[in-house]
Amino acid sequence: MLEIGINTNNESGDNIEEILLNIKKTGFNKVMLSYKSGDIEKIVKICKKLNIQIAYYHINNKYANNLWATGKSVDDYISDVIKQINYCGKFQIPIAVFHATQGSPSTFPLKPNKKGLENLKKILNVAKENNVKIAIENIDIFSIKNLYYLLDNIRDENLGFCYDAGHHHLYNPRKDLIKKYGNRLFALHLHDNLEDWYSGYDYTRDLHLLPLDGKIDFSKVCEKLKKANYNGIIMLEVHKKSCGDPQYYEKMTNEQFLFEAKKRADKLVEMIKC
Description:
Blueprint: E1 3-7, H1 16-25, E2 30-34, H2 40-50, E3 53-58, H3 72-90, E4 95-99, H4 114-129, E5 133-137, H5 144-153, E6 159-164, H6 165-171, H7 177-181, E7 185-189, H8 218-227, E8 233-236, H9 254-273
Parallel strand pairs: 1-2, 1-8, 2-3, 3-4, 4-5, 5-6, 6-7
Helix pairs in contact: 1-2, 3-4, 8-9
């Protein structure tokens, strides 16, 4: 049975307590907890009180390019990721979404290399000990080779793919990522944009609109998910204030935005079932 969820950093409140309460009021029972949302232990307590399941945790990607490097900064980065994975295990969060690079289409990541494999295997070993699955997310046009390199060289039941529909259609629309990794699909990020990124632009075209408000053909996305036999969570990753212009939702109340988000998530479920 397909269920729906939404990211905690969706900007539908002034603080995480208000956001989670609004999420619950509008009919969502599952969330992706962003590292940007604050103290994980505090948030877990609030979610338990509201009967909200934290289905994914999004690992901090600020220093993700260090995965491919060497030195003390790399050791610090790996230690921080492992700390976050341990939290996932402690609080029974089953999936950790992971960036293989920092994820900015205006910068170039380090080329795929064996050090990246070694570092990810260290992280993966801890994930397995904690019964946590790692889902690597497709990000920008320059890091797609890093994604391929990791998934193609590490075959492990705890390592899989997080399909981000917005990033796919903005940066790598000619690649059929669901077909390539559909059998390893652990997680989704569903959001929309105007498909108007060009080389030299920064990340501000990655609008994170509600699905069906932009130019992505979600009928095709849903058909591919259906063919991949995806039966996980239909997880929205949206922002009320969006990441750039135009800002479609500035006149909506927080509740109006979340009610509309739920309608879109339910619609996607219907499209996949058809």
